[in-house]
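Weekly structure sync - notes
Attendees: PM, LS, DV (DV joined late)
Agenda: review two folding runs queued last week.

Item 1: First target. Sequence and structure tokens pasted below for the record.
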Amino acid sequence: MSTDNDKDRMESLVERLNRYNYEYHVEDSPTVSDAEYDRLFRELQSLEAARPDLRLADSPTHKVGAAPLPAFESVTHAVPMLSLNNAFSDMEAEPAEQRHAELFQFDERVRKGLGAEGGAVRYAAEPKFDGLAVSLLYRNGVFERAATRGDGVTGENVTENVRTIRSLPLRLHGDTVPSLLEVRGEVLMLREDFERLNRHQAELGEKVFANPRNAAAGSLRQLDSRITATRRLSFFAYGVSRVEGAVRPDTHSQEMAWLGRLGFPVVPESLRPVLDGIEAVAAFYESIMARRAELPYDIDGVVYKVNDRAQQERLGFVSRAPRFAIAHKFPAEEAWTEVESIETQVGRTGAITPVARLKPVFVGGVTVTNATLHNEDEVARKDVRVGDTVVVRRAGDVIPEVVSVVLAKRPMVSEAGADLVEPVLRPREMPWRMPDRCPVCGSHVVRPEGEAIARCTGGLFCSAQRKQAVIHFASRRAMDIEGLGEKLVEQLVDLGWVKTPGDLYRLRAEDLAGLERMGEKSAANLLASIEASKTTTLPRFLFALGIRNVGESTARDLARHFPDVEDLFPACREDESDDAMARARLTDRLLAVPDVGPIVAASVVEFFAEPMNVAVVRDLLASGIHWPMETAPSAPADSPVAGKTFVLTGTLPTLTRDEAKARIEAAGGKVSGSVSARTHFVVAGEAAGSKLEKALALGVTILDEPGLLALLA
């Protein structure tokens, strides 16, 4: 490359990196990923190493961060807050020396600097937090001042905000409190506190934060420390820069233990035994990376320091970093990429989930091409569109998700019109909308009022829901087909023998006998159980259909008011499949059923509005499924139970829950699953929980088992 090309490239890199630095450290609004920043920074370092004569005075390799915010008083650091050089690893390489080549090169430089090429160096290791570095000053054991890193020489005075951190000691304790102590550490936000903050922000309709680091930065830079106090920041110490009036420990590990005794929060990993040699260091890196997702805070790598402070002083510093320490970074958990399309997936229960198809990107140690968008509301909240550049996050084995959109990179188009004086820019793509038809079976997609999840209504025939539908259909409380367990259902569906529940009644003994772990006797027993299931009750049959929001109790109420299942079909007759009036008529009839509200009525109507669902029901009836006519249980006119609502909770001494329920219903009562002001009796057994507490609060009559039996008698 020519000198002019070198110079132009270096000037371009310096300008870009300084801009990215300002956006990240001052505005808390990065427009480039950490991985991309690191790549450009390393390119600049390489160019400056090859052509030191072209190095620019404002190169970011000279400094650590960005200038302090003018809103805060400036603080000049007595000891500069330097950064660390980085090491990266190729986790697919073998052996470990090749996988962690840059780490081994660091160790080689350390041993050479110490004249200890033949011996192992002892290292202290600790997590590399993803937060904000601060310096804390204590005089005679009392907290006096806190400052951010800033540009490494001058930082921002954030004393009042740091004072609100509950874990931070405002007065040190112990027998070795120095007259002056300056401690370096990290302000961050624990994951659970971050999630709590974002939930609160969303409830208030305010901006949610992209990650805990941004949340911590925004909280620490509040001009009103009362706001900071509500944000639950945390602090962990990681080193000492100045000590007066006390003997400073000889090693870094002893220093961390000393800070802990003085009252500073110190992460357990900082107090672990030191590591002998670089092989142990590499093993620690892989160990903590495997546990990364389990930690209560975000980390983006591990920091290693030569443990002996005398050796640290011999090794010294380069312009911006110590020679005795290095930051070994993990593969980025967040990366930037483009959304190529937004598609939908159908879950086993019919839930429709939007999924972003991405331009492949390496994040969290793997190449990611898909990321969940959770639900329609999340897509709208984040305003994710096809063509957008997005931040993708993958932590451990967690499914990758789209965290946010980089709006500065959104593709725009110019729009001109007769009524416009000048052309205006608008987004190239329109906002995404949930499709109204299932991508698998073509059924209607509905989103019940008050729910975040949209669902496919073709539960009986949609192939995405097939296994779950058949398992539920055969379950004990539904059609009670003994021997038809989950694994057997999976085999039958995977072989294509069962596509709807009606196919169960067409299975042949000779086919079943050839399946894994299924002989002739087992096949005969299963077919006998399937045959026996044809004689059932209408409530069981309705429950077996898997209609959303229709449980056993609701199925029983429906059976009493619709004794012929075809009474539920009017909205789906071929000549009026799209007839809104037919749906309205059925809805009105359903709402006349006690305890059937608008949500249940809508679920029933949507289910039977799918012609394929009706076709499956008719197929089941044609296979021979039948039941006696359902009649409401009779009860004496003066029965104290008739028309009363009961709730069962806890374990009764002799009656099972089902037995107690059956006796109450036989006497004309009704059993509900939740306590409300309309509940007449709560029957409480051993280990009764929140239902009993709510009943007591509402003044509902409480019965034990003897009291229930006396009432029924």
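Item 2: Second target, run right after the first with the same settings.
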Amino acid sequence: MGFLAFTAAALVVGIVLSLAGLSVWGDVVLAVGTIVALGPASWWVVSALRAGRLGVDAIAVLALVGTLAVREYLAGALIAVMLAGGRALEHYAMRRARRDLTALYERAPRSAHRYDRDGLRRLDVGEVSRGDLLLVPAGEMVPVDGVVSRCAALLDESALTGEALPVDYPVGESVRSGVVNVGPAFDLRATSTAEESAYAGVVRLAGEAEAGSAPVVRVADRFAAWFLPATLVLAGLAWVLSGEAVRAVAVLVVATPCPLLLAAPAAIASGLSRTARRGVVVKGGGALETLGRARTLVLDKTGTLTQGRPEVVDIVAAQGFSAREVLGLAASVDRMSAHVLAAAITQAADQRGAETVVAEGVHEQAGSGTTGSVDGRLVHVGKAPKGLDSAWMAAQRARAALDSAMTVWVSVDGSVAGLILLRDEVRADAARTLRRLRSAGIERVVMLTGDRAEVAESVAAVLGVDRVIAEQTPAQKVAVVREEAERAPTVMVGDGVNDAPALAAAQVGVAMGAHGSAASTQAADVVLTTDRLDRLADAMDVARRTRRIAVESAGIGIGLSVVAMVAAALGAIPPAGGALLQEAIDVAVILNALRALRPGRGTRLHVDAPTDALLHHFDREHATLRPALDLLREAADALDRPSAQALPLVRHVHDVLSSEILPHEQAEEQRLYPALSRLLRDPEATVTMSRAHAEISRLAARLARHVELAGTNGPRPEQIDDLRACLYGLHAVLTLHFAQEEEAYFSLTGRAE
């Protein structure tokens, strides 16, 4: 800013002195302003040459020298102000928080608890030696690599692997530093020092990846490849053919690349403002420009494509229990538990209206589960009690394995009451976001995760990614990102500490900042401040439009400059007049560049406020109706029991369908779908969803007929097969229909969750 202030002051004072009749002193002041500008401009040229490129700043240096040589001091002072203003605007637009990885160091273990002769002693982690016996308290990070000793451990490994679900480690198993103890305290036998441990390796990788990142070349410098030699040739011809050096200087003055120096920064600064309004922080113009030309997208799975936390996806009740009862019993015990899955179970119980009571005598045993007394019954939540096994339990284990779900068994007085399945669900906006990104220019989508291959493949199948690379360490992730970056401009999206090195290695690293780690946020070039993946598509829309406007503005400016250069070469424009003309071109270019401040069409469909409110209303209704979907499956399973026992549940399902689900579907048909047809400008847009409504109504009517035919003793034997098929059919159609609406319609809303 000091450079701009000085050159502007020199220009104003010089003009004032000239107008006051002190033209000699005015020329002196203007010349001083020109000479002062030569220093920084020359340094910019030298810096560009050291980086292996010759930028358009060289034209500005020649123009400044030329104005001094032919004593066109006013033109020189004008060029000096333009240069200083362009640089000031560029620095503002491209100022960025470089990949400051301090969060990695701040998160690193600082201390450990070691057993000594005098008991337990807290010491600096650097003092830990191989063979030391350490205590890892609940909630603390494992300080060094080691082996679990004396009692089992339950660890959150998301910082290193990205896996959202905790992992049990029995005695004798090796664990890595950087993971968090989410169970009771356990003992650890150190097998390495802090410097040799896994987490220290992650920190080193991040630093190395950052150091290897190349700077982004300015848009202006890419134009220089042809504009600079063309300018010098034209200026030389003008001088040779006319014999007047002033014509060559006039050509250089009007060729001074201020449209290039001003257009791109102005557009990029506008683009940065637009992304900020969408909840996306872009750390500088270089990142925005590169994001605008990205062709490959690499995504972490856990916390990026998925929610990043386990959720209850199903409850399977054993004979004699209902799903709601199983969930209520589990939540009653888990409200007093420190287990990492307890929050998911209690939250599901609250959402589904399961009845809970205060459990007594709650006791948690690492690696086994939590036990407590609920209304005089001994309830165990966790692993299945030893010695219990059956064909039904084996079938549920097989089902959980196929669904890549974690199992929590619930037993009452030593007998299995049911099973709770938990899974890290795919984000509702993930599929639409990937489609939008492909429309915006992304040609290749890669999922890169430390999670198991079967889990990653199941998510990839839903989202349609081009390549899945699973079970990767942080070092392997960096290698994959670098491999992809060699093929095309690459964007890496992640949220965990384990993603930080890969984010730093990519041309553009994007962090899910709302719930992601501080390390990934610091390592990234772009941070999504809301927990929505679709903000990435918004940012890419802005980046591509900004880059297009920047190039367009620069092109318009150069085109006008070329016309002026020809006129100057023919002697029609003197240097001072050329400088003023160049100022007019600059104003036109900047006004065009500022169009980037206005919203563009992009790939997001604009949703009006009334439709947005409808989408949110029906989305909330989906959340309240999901427990009813579980009832359908539970009722179908109950048909294996005597008919008299199944009849109350079947009738309850019929009542829920009639009073809750069917009215919801009818309201969608009457209120939501017409609004969506208008929004999408296609009367056929919701036809397939309406067909699903018709099928739901048909099956519901069939179920109602079965309830009518059933006597007091329950459904007749000849009804059982068709009734079971009807219930399973309703469950399948409604589950798919809900998922389709949430992905295709409810993800259209622009509100942050």
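Discussion on item 2: The first strand starts at residue 111 and ends at 116.
Action: LS to circulate a short write-up before next sync.
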